[in-house]
Amino acid sequence: KLANSIQNALHNSRMSSKASEQMQALGQMYQVGARSGNFTTQDQQLMAGFQAAMAQHGSDMQGSQGAQAYSALSSSLSNTANPMAQLLFGGASPQYQSPHGHAQLIKDMQKAQSEPWRYKTAIGNMFKVASRASSNKQDQIEMVAGNLVEISGGQLTFDQAEKYAKMYQNGEFDKKHLKKLTNGDGKGNKKQ
Length: 192
What we know:
Elements: H1 2-12, H2 19-34, H3 41-55, H4 63-77, H5 83-90, H6 99-111, H7 119-133, H8 137-151, H9 158-169, H10 175-181
Helix pairs in contact: 1-3, 2-3, 2-4, 3-10, 5-7, 7-8, 8-9
């Protein structure tokens, strides 16, 4: 089932011709995901879907550059020692306010390394702040991209950060969307 999901993700992102490079990069992304301590087969399938979503945004989001971009996103937004990352990830959510809630926030931030769809919370919180500063969508995207570059310590390029912001706006951080990118029969054919 995992092999089918990966094959479908390659096909659905039109990256079959670069399968070898994408598979190497997916292996690098899996190494990031394994840091969470609990990297399930379903997580691996959704990670392949996330890679497929990234690949549709250009060469700097594909192959080794894409894996580097994911590593930068993950290491910055899952950095439990960074109070800014904690604030962005947890926002004003009451579930994270108690001492037990803070422990849950740390667990959820670490789990996001293997579940990239969880980063939509942090990026969504960045968009909430940006929407207060400007009603212009492109301005908001650029503000969020700038924040992503800053919190990554410059590991993300502005273009990569901007593509993550656009992915968020397009709903590409949604678990349902990532699952859709892995659907099929393993040969690139959609299930009926």
